[in-house]
Design a protein that fits this description.
Elements (H helix, E strand, L loop, with lengths): L1 H10 L1 H35 L5 E5 L3 H8 L13 H7 L4 E13 L2 E6 L1 H7 L5 E2 L7 E4 L10 E2 L2 E2 L14 E6 L11 E4 H7 L4 H12 L4 H18 L23 E6 L2 H10 L5 E4 L1 H44 L1 H9 L4 H42 L9 H26 L3 H6 L1
Parallel strand pairs: 3-9, 5-8
Antiparallel strand pairs: 1-10, 1-11, 2-3, 2-7, 2-10, 4-8, 5-9, 6-8
């Protein structure tokens, strides 16, 4: 029987290849959607796992989380710096870290933050050490810069037409181990450096006071103001003191911030802080809650794509039944000859059923492998762009899906097999 099936498939190899490819492509579409959606859920949840509470100015909670945790560039409203000072002294807070962004270098986002955030979210350094001065930086594992490299930040990005901050240079002092999060692609610098680069902070305010209190003639002041304005347009309002020590003792007159990451000491403290800072000009969110709403959107998209995949699989199944039934009609003489030479009805049924089932099963197996490869390629491209590692792989749910598809294939293959089983040998030979 097996040799007969093999000979028949060799004779009709082109049709067999077409059947396998059709089934494989239809299966791969559904598998890719399922694997990619699951990987995106797991990867994003892991990326946000170490951040319990995010506080920012009133606005979009989704954009607040995407910008502060997933480092997606977007303009956020600023909340008063006194919020940071208040949180840093709150006994319910284990650590608090401001997040300042807007600059980049070589396509990597430059994020202003504190040593507390770095020390609390990673275990040690892959190489080098923590930044200690205003002109020092720590880079994530995916940043292709060695310790000692120079960083000349750009306002915004090159795609947005940003300009390099003149006279501002950071030196890389440490490289972090991989975390599988967007922070692997980030360049981390002291928050005070970000403030000073953009003309914020005490040093800049002190310079402004000296400028306004000086005794220069009005014409000189106007010229100086014009020169300063031109310099600010070019340099984006400030510079850094590369050798200044990092100061993370925040006071009420700290500059405004787009977001603050907070680690509460207990779960009860987290809910109290969230309630307290969800009024007025501030907005506190749990990243997990925001991701849950995003997952609901992903689930809706998955349903649509899964429906498309199921529709394509149904069309392929219908086409296969039609082609196979037609093929059985063309093979009436062959089947009649088998019956005339003494082949039992069950043997004829088994030959036709097994031939089609093997082709469909091979297509399903190839489709699962193709879907896995496609999902992995998409995940790799997503990781390169966002830094989020997406864990693509099969689970027990996929095994159940494979069993369901194989069962459906067995039923599908029985349709032409029953037709062959019921065919009269005498009628077949007369045809």
């Amino acid at each position: 029987m097996i040799r007969f099936i093999a000979a028949d498939l060799r004779r009709l190899w082109l049709g067999a290849v077409v059947v396998v490819l059709l089934v494989a492509l239809a299966t791969a579409l559904g598998v890719t959607v399922t694997l990619q959606e699951r990987a995106l859920r797991l990867g994003s949840a892991r990326a946000a796992d170490k951040f319990d509470l995010v506080i920012g100015a009133a606005g979009s909670e989704t954009q607040l989380v995407l910008s502060s945790i997933f480092l997606q560039p977007a303009p956020l409203p600023l909340m008063p710096g006194e919020v940071l000072a208040k949180l840093s002294k709150d006994p319910r807070v284990a650590w608090v870290a401001p997040v300042g962004f807007g600059d980049s270098f070589a396509g990597y986002p430059l994020v202003g933050t504190t040593r507390a955030l770095i020390g609390s979210t990673v275990s040690g350094f892959a190489s080098g050490r923590m930044f200690e001065k205003e002109g020092e930086a720590v880079v994530g594992a995916a940043v292709k810069l060695p310790v000692g490299a120079e960083i000349k930040p750009m306002h915004g990005t090159a795609q947005m037409g940003g300009e390099t901050h003149a006279g501002v240079v950071y030196h890389v002092t440490g490289k972090l181990p991989p975390t599988g999060t967007p922070w692997d692609r980030a360049i981390l610098v002291p928050i005070q450096a970000v403030w000073h680069v953009h003309g914020l902070g005490h040093d800049h305010e002190h310079e402004e006071e000296e400028h306004h209190e000086g005794g220069a003639a009005p014409g000189t002041q106007a010229a100086a103001a014009a020169d300063e304005h031109a310099d600010e347009d070019h340099d984006h309002h400030g510079s850094i003191d590369a050798d200044a020590a990092v100061d993370e003792n925040f006071t009420a007159d700290a500059p405004g911030l787009p977001a603050v990451l907070v680690k509460p000491k207990t779960i009860a403290d987290a809910y109290k802080l969230r309630q307290e800072y969800r009024s007025g000009n501030t907005f506190a969110v749990f990243p997990g809650e925001v991701l849950t709403s995003l997952y609901a959107t992903l689930g809706d998209a998955k349903m649509v794509l899964s429906a498309v995949a199921a529709g394509s699989q149904g069309l392929v199944a219908a086409a296969l039944v039609l082609v196979t039934v037609t093929h059985i009609g063309q093979r009436r003489r062959q089947i009649g000859a088998l019956r005339a030479f003494g082949a039992p009805q069950l043997s004829v049924f088994a030959i036709v059923w097994l031939e089609l089932f093997l082709l469909v099963a091979l297509g399903i197996g190839l489709g699962f492998l193709t879907g896995l490869a496609a999902a992995q390629l998409i995940a790799n491209a997503f990781t390169v762009k966002s830094g989020i590692v997406l864990p693509v792989g099969f689970t027990g749910e996929d095994l159940r899906m494979a069993i369901i598809l194989l069962t459906a294939s067995a039923i599908l293959a029985a349709v032409p097999a029953i037709l062959a089983y019921r065919q009269s040998p005498a009628a077949a030979l007369r045809a």
